[in-house]
Amino acid sequence: MHTSVLLKESIDYLNLKDNSTIIDCTLGYAGHSSEILKRIPNGFLYAFDQDSEAIEKANKRLNQISNNYKIINKNFVNLKLEIKEKVDGILFDLGVSSPQLDEDYRGFSYHKEAKLDMRMNQKQVLDAYKVVNEYPYEKLVDIFRKYGEEKYSTSIAKGIITKREIKPIETTVELAEIIKENVPEKYRKKAHPARKIFQALRIEVNDELNVFKTALKDALELLKPGGRICVITFHSLEDRICKQIFNEVSTVPKELSNLPIVPDKYKPKYRVLANIKPKDKEIEYNKRSRSARLRVIEKI
Ligand SMILES: C[S@@+](CC[C@H](N)C(=O)[O-])C[C@H]1O[C@@H](n2cnc3c(N)ncnc32)[C@H](O)[C@@H]1O
Asked: Which of 51, 146, 186, 287 is the most exposed place for a label (fewest CB within 10 A)?
């Protein structure tokens, strides 16, 4: 089962009215969406997910609340193509859900033996097996550095190349072992040495950062005045993108900041409302929330 992170905080910040129109970009198992749907009896909910398994379960849950919703089985990068009206609120609860992590065969976890996969969209062609076994050395180093911020990227990539020349690397545990063998002994004692590389592979396979950047910019355009976007991120790379985009649209351009009166067309159209982390109590009861952060912005 998936325990929703920062549930109360994000729902409160969405400022739901009974007739609000809301988009949940990451439906998952409908933890957030169920709460939203309950509070908008005369409104409408659009919910995206690219994972058919999650959608099936979420649909059963939402069905019991009302019919005022539409599930869109697509990547949220299609936001602007799919939604043709302005809305009151948009939620992103990024990353993977606990069931996705727990299902061995999805290949997201380095603790569980599985085929290297990591696709959120099971119809997609690129998977972690292809990245690990087919990407050239330089490209592996690049994604490990960029998306994993891993300081032993070169030695790990070399280790992968050496192994795969003998035979393809098939499973998560096999890969985790290779990673372990290619970092210094004392580094292995900190967090699991495979953590950052698995994060990097997941980001690459699902193109997570580019997709999020595009969708967040489009989401800003879809808001009605007074409408809000809540973004829950789970690592610094996603959070940095969110922070940067929110800063850009909520501040006066640097060149104009000294003017006594800023012309209307340069005045920010959005204001940042919150940047919060889960309380200790939530972290205690849901470990997955420890790296989470919620940022909220409002269209003025
Ligand atoms: C953390 S879970 C959301 C959990 C949900 N808020 C809940 O409380 O049940 C993230 C979900 O978003 C989906 N997802 C992630 N990136 C996506 C994308 N680019 N497009 C569509 N769905 C995406 C994943 O498949 C996953 O089901």
From this structure: 186
